[in-house]
Amino acid sequence: MREDSERSQVSRRQLVKYAGVGATLAAASPLVGGGAARAHDKGEHTGAPHGNPRDRAWRAGDHHIHSEYSGDYDTSTNPPTFVKGADAVYPIVTNAIMAKNFGLTWAMCTDHGGPNHSKVNLEQAYPDLLLSRRLVPEVLQFWGMEFDAPAMDHHTLMIPRHDDEAKMLHDLESKFAKNEPYPADKGRDTEAKMIEFLSYAKHMPHKPLVIAHHAARSASGWGVWGQDTPHEFRNNQDTAPDIYVGFEGAPGHQAGPLNGGARGGYGNYPTHGGFDQMTARVGGLWDSLLGEGRRWWITATSDSHVHWTRGGSDFWPGEYSKTYVNARQDYGDIMDALRTGRIFVTTGDLITGLDVTARGQGRAASVGESITLSRRNRTDVEIEIRFRPLPGANHNGDRPQVRRVDLIVGQVTGPVTNRDADTNPTTRVVARFGPRDWRRQGDEYVIRHTLRNVETDLYARVRGTSTDEAEPLADGLESPWSDLWFYSNPVFVTVR
C-alpha cells in the first residue's frame, strides 16, 4: 500500500519512540563494509543443513516485512531517482528490534522493486542489513526482496545465507524482476519470463526460496481468480519444485479493520478468518494442490509497512501473525524447514507450538513428512495432535483460548488434467475436537484420532480457532484480535 507524505512523516517521528536504541547504535557503530557477509556472525552457516534434528525447536519468524527501501521514484530524472521511505518507512534495524520484541528469532525484509532497484539493494539496503545483523544478533535476518514476479503478484525471494548473497540477489533482480527496466519492458511481464527465472534459479549453487504473497488479493469473487492462477502455481512448481514451494495462507495487513479498512487489504473479495480463500476453503485450491501430492506449504506474515497506530494497516513483525518453523537457530536449517514444510502458522499468539504426527505399521511422520505403509496389511493410522496454548496474555492484552481443533483429511489422487483445477472433492473435516476431547500433558494438550483401514494415499492437516465458527466466515470490520486461527502444514501417508 502507498502512504501519503503526511502519514510517512508522522511514522518517521514514531521511530524516535520505537527505534531510539537502534538509531543510537547505528549512529555509533561503524558500517559493516563490502559485499561479503561475515560467516562468524551468530547462527550464520553457509553449507547444507546439518546437526542433530533433536536440537530443533519451534521458532517464530516473518518472511514478508518492508523497510524504508520500499520507496518511490522521481521520474523527472533519467534514470529515475530512488526516494527512500515513500511506501514503507522504518529502517531495517527498527524492524529487527521490533521482531525481537515480539518474539521472533528470524525475519526478512522484503522490499519492493522498481527501476534499477537492484542497484539500490546492492549499494544501500544490503550494508544496512549487515549493520542490523550486528546490532540485533538475536534475530537471524535473511537477505532478499519482495520480487515483482513476471505475470503474477508479489513473491518472497529469499536468498540463502552465504558470502555472495548480495551479488546473487542483484543477479536475479536485475535479470528477471518485471519492474526493473526503465522504460518498462512488456517482455519482462509474461508467464514465460517467470519460468525462465525459475529455470535460471534452480541451477544456481545456492538455491533461493520463492513464496507467493497475498495470492487471492486480486480475486474478484469466491474462486474467481485474479492475477495469480492455479495453472501458474503448478507450472512454476513443476519447473523448480525445491524453490517454488507455497503461498501465504494468512496475508499481512491484518490490522486494516482497526482503521476502517479491509483485513489483508483484500478489497475485492475478503479473507476468511484472516486467511486467504485459497487456504481457508476446505477442499479448495490448497487442497487441490495437496491432492496431487505436491509439497505445497502455507505461511503467515505481517507485510509491515506502517503501523496501524500511525495510520497504516499493519502490525509489527510478530505482533499478530507468526510463521513457526521446526529448526535450529541456524540460517540453513530455518530455510530447510521452509523448503520442506516443517511449518505451522498462527495469529494472535493463539498457540505457541503444534505437532501433528501420523503413525502406522511402526512408522511415524510429522508435518512436511510422509510415511509409507504396506497395502498388504490393511492398517489404521493414528493421528496425534499436540498444541501448546499461550501461557499468558498476547500483544493485545488478551488471553486467547482454543475453542476447537479440526482434523482435515484429503486423498492424494495424482496430477490433474485441468491445470486450473481448484478443488479437491475428497477433502473434508473428519473430526472436530473441543476442550472435553483433549487432555493435558505438561504445558501441552494432546488429541488422538484413528483413521480406520487406510487403503489410499492421503494427507492430514489441522486447524484450530478461538471462535465458534464451523468454517471461517468472510471478514468484515471486526477486530482481528477476536478472530484467531492456526493451521498446520500437512503430513502425508502413502500406501504401496
From TrEMBL:
PROSITE patterns: TAT. Residues 34-58 are annotated as: Disordered. Residues 38-58 have a biased composition (Basic and acidic residues). It comes from Plantactinospora sonchi. InterPro entries: Pol/histidinol_Pase-like, TAT_signal. This is Phosphoesterase.
